[in-house]
Amino acid sequence: MRWGLLLIVLGLCGTTTGTVEAAETEPWNDPFWSLLHEPAAIAELQLNADQQQAFHALRDDLDLRFFPLRNQTKEVATAGTLKIIAEAREKLSDLLEPQQFQRYQELVLQRLGNDAFLHPLVVDRLKYNAAQQAKLEKISAETNEAAAALRQAVADQTKDRTAAQQEYTKLLERQQKKLLGVLTPIQQSALRKVVGQPFTGLKTSQPHFRAPDFSTAGEWLNSSPLSLKELRGKVVVVHFYAFGCINCIRNYPWYLEWSEKFKDQEVVIVGIHTPETNAEQNSASVRRKATEAKFRFPILIDAKKENWNAWGNSMWPCVYVIDKQGYLREQWAGELKWQGNDGEKYMRSKIEALLTE
Fold this sequence. Notes:
Residues 205-356 form the Thioredoxin domain. This is Thioredoxin domain-containing protein. Residues 1-22 form the signal peptide. Keywords: Signal. InterPro entries: AhpC/TSA (IPR000866), Thioredoxin-like_sf (IPR036249), Thioredoxin_domain (IPR013766), Thioredoxin_ResA/DsbE_sf (IPR050553). The protein is of the alpha/beta class. It has 2 domains: 3-203, no CATH class; 211-355, Glutaredoxin (3-Layer(aba) Sandwich), CATH 3.40.30. 51% of the residues lie in helices and 10% in strands. The chain contains 15 helices and 7 strands. It has helices at 3-10, 31-34, 39-44, 49-66, 74-95, 98-112, 120-126, 130-155, 161-182, 185-195, 246-249, 252-261, 283-292, 306-311, 343-355, and strands at 209-210, 219-221, 235-241, 267-273, 299-301, 318-322, 327-333. It has a 7-stranded mixed β-sheet. A hairpin with a 4-residue loop joins strand 6 and strand 7 (327-333). Helix 4 (49-66) runs antiparallel to helix 5. The longest helix has 26 residues, at 130-155. The protein is globular, with a radius of gyration of 23 Å. The two termini are 43 Å apart. The relative contact order is 0.12.
């Protein structure tokens, strides 16, 4: 059988479409967790009405417990995330029928791509001998080392991002051929069965995370207190800022431009002012600076960092885009125009796309 055909049959061809920037080793990048947030993956399970209701309640609860972990120390975040994923695995197993849970496991393996060769489910099913296990581990380690070198070259700006991406794609293709070459024909057949029917929906699916609602404790400017629940049906743009932060100030023109552009559409911009310095604690100063900046959209003064911590935010500024159902769909950390990036155009396109949903 030709390699190209075999890769498609195995359902692992998506491994060659990843990005060179990502080193997805942290537990929050576990595909079991991330796929819970991709509508295409959940639709593939064909949940009945009762299952859908229970699933969304479960996922929303887990999300609201996950968000506060994002700005904790790596040790705390890792331990907390692993606990949440373990709970998700246990409760999803109870919620789904056996064939549904098996299909979900297949989607997890397909999302893992080349890493699936060393996943415990695959290792248990294929029964590698010691020599095979060592070869597979060596191939994966060499690929990871080469990928890390590419990422560093991009970070050091010694390699063009596009060229690095092309090299990374070829690197994964070579890795996959080497990994398959270690398997016997019987093991290759078993691998096809364990990863299941290829699912192309994984390539285009976009994650949905339940966004934390606004704290009721803060003072509001330009608006009565708001909640994401009452804003359902509208696209909500949330930006965390501090009035003394120069990086935040450089984003101001885009917030004003969005306010004008979308003023007659179902878009609400909400600023959350979380103080970085003692001077920014004064609500009168926040109000005065907002007036000077010509902010007419709602602003929540987050003096006690309750919203900052609920969202697990860790940077000034940070922009989030929430869809009409209250799910986080995109975020941009830092200046929108930092070092030649066009985050303004990118985030504006996301707002426009969500308006059409």
